Amino acid sequence: SALTAPQRTHCGSQQMEPSTMKFKPMRAAPQASFFKALGEAKLQQWKLDDRARPAWARIVPAIRAEGGLRLEASSLGEHGRDAGVAAGTDRLSPTCPGHVLCFNTLEQMQKADKAAVLGAAAALVWADIVSGRALDSPGLLARFVVACHADMKQHKFVLWPAFPALVPEDGLAQEGEALPASAGLSAGLGVEPAVVLEEASEAVAALMARSPAGLPLAFVLARRDGKLAAQPLREAADRGAASLRADLATRGLVLVVVDPSPLARHAGWTARNALVMASVCLGLGGEVLPVLCLRPSPRGAVVDPPDHARPDEASAAAAGESSAPTATTALCGSIVVRVRCPGLEGVAAAAVGPPPGEALAGWLAADAAPDVEGTSSLPRLPRGLSAAGWERQPVRAKDGSTTMLSRPRVVDLGRLLDPAKLAESAGRLNLSLMRWRALPGLDQPLLEGMKCLLLGAGTLGCHVSRCLLAWGVRSITFVDNGSVAHSNPVRQPLFEFADAAAGAKSSKKAIVAALALKRVSPVCQPRGVVLTIPMPGHAEDLDASMAAAAELRRLIEESDVVFALTDTRESRWLPTLLCRASNTPLINAALGFDSWLVMRHGLDATRPVSGALAPPASPPLEPTEATRDSPAAERSVLAATSSAAAAGAGAVSSTGPAPTVGCYFCSDVVGPLNTTRGRTMDQQCTVTRPGLAPIAAAHAVELLVNMAHHPARALAPAAVRSADAGAPAPAEAGVGTGPVPHQLRGFMATFSTMQLEAAASTVCTACSANVVGALDARGDAFIRAAIEDPDLLERASGLEAMKAEADALAEAAGGDDWAMDEDF
User: Fold this and answer.
1) Residues near 142 by Cβ (< 8 Å), separated by ≥ 6?
2) Which residues are known to be catalytic?
3) pTM for the full model?
4) What are φ and ψ of residue 532, in 5° steps?
């Protein structure tokens, strides 16, 4: 009969000599998203900290092909529970906890005691079993460890997963051969083969319906009162060993384990620890236990029957339709093996060494720093148990044969990544590595989101843009009205000979520089604006100048910082005035023949600074360690800055208090004039030592970076150090990157650099309250008048009156008493 045929087959197998059970080794199936998340975590979070990190993965059952341990982006960290690893996204794939151990060097990974690592992880599994935790969370039976090394420069990952399996001293004995699901369940549960798959599928579906996480890794199928039911392990254990043994004797109990193996005659790796659990927690040691290696198919899919499937199963599967599969189809790929549970009565309940909950958790958790090379303090399995589980890789011999050996795998993603994404990742690598040790406080998102306006796309503009790009800045706007000349490419690295040969109309510097920067880094967002900056004394086309002034004001107001990198003094006047009116940070760089100047313009501490360089909402009211020993004026400036920012730095006019430090024009005693008239050839060109431009550009950008990381950011007080004081360490400066000086002057003749500070002038023609007030009052009419009549700036600022007063004082002090006699 259909009921006794499988029984006779089974009885025959019982009389056969038991054989050592073989298992299909587990393999990890890391997704591309896992490697991306691993690289980001190593660069941005873990850095040099090589402690083991908690992780989560899915045991994917074999359906059409081999299953395994699936690692995804959400596998890393405790957040994996909430990111979809365990919740609802794949209810047929149970979740299991593990750890990722990311070594800092390959040498460290090679020297690590692999046996001790595997033994410690297996000891944790043993502790989960003997404590009963595995009954409530069967996924603990499939713990894993991923030892790895991430080379983010080459985008290569060395990965060596381990799946700790408890190996009893006497091994595991299999009774007979594996049977297809219908025959094996019929023999183990005493149910007709025609209906056993239907009832088993319904029982599994009912268990999944009341399990929030979906299908558990292991459970039991029990026939009670003529009905087949799927029971969680805890519920089965509560019935007691005597009841379970009685069910087993009357063909009423089957252990079910989700199986990643696709083999028709061998169970997967997950069954190993489940059988040890059945011996210890269910009291079935020494019993022959039917094990259903569950390979469920998802709803709506048809599974190809295995090679050994019975004809009726094969025809049922072939006749099924994907839109409405039968319950039989859901289990037709599964197999049943009969295994004698190991007798572990003489095995100690506890691991040898420190308790797993303490020392082992200290190594395999994120709250302690283990010494990977010195693993003697790790717990070990008790006598009678050993561990296996390092992943094996196929190795081809010279004769063409393939052997499976325990060794790591190498994954090279560099060949698969999109070139633009690869460039983005490589560009950020150096900055990410800074945060490991040299500069932990580096704020990469702040720099990446900063909008920089470069006034001038010549020698300084090219070098400044490349340095900004190296710091991760992406939004760079060039403003220039010139064209690439044949003399430019050798000094200006964004231009080539072909740009100069293209002609003036098609080689505007601002446009060509933006396109070149995009070729250097496809992820940046450069922009070129062809614009002539209005200048005092340059009144050739007033209407065009006023349109350009309006455009320049708009560009400044939408930028976080402005770099003044133009050739003439007067071209820096309007940007200085507009930045002062909008309280936008401005950094000035200028070149002489063998000297250079880099300076930041002062801002009004009583007014808000918008954009990325705005001080935090609540900066420290007390001076930092670095400023506590500074002059009293600096300490008062910082206190005023902090108080103003903390109070909201509210609504005061732009004609409020003057900046604390001066601008490019504050030291002048004359207003900006047209300096291009009457120039000789050497005065018309920027004749300077070639090395000055990159030096000045680098100092300008580094000044910006220091400012961005100061507690007060754009309102940072000027830091001045004497020439013999030496370079301050970042900690000494009280900020992450160092001090924020007002002016830097370099001299190539002596290879020296000076830090200077100059107070803001009350009669400055560009940033004084009088000039800014005139701009507020008259608007564009004031700019137009200054372009037509440069002397207006001396009158409006009060500089003319100050000079007249100084002349009068000099005349009154000396008079004719100091006149020289003609005969002297």
Assistant:
1) 59, 69, 94, 96, 163, 217, 270, 273
2) 685
3) 0.72
4) -95, 120
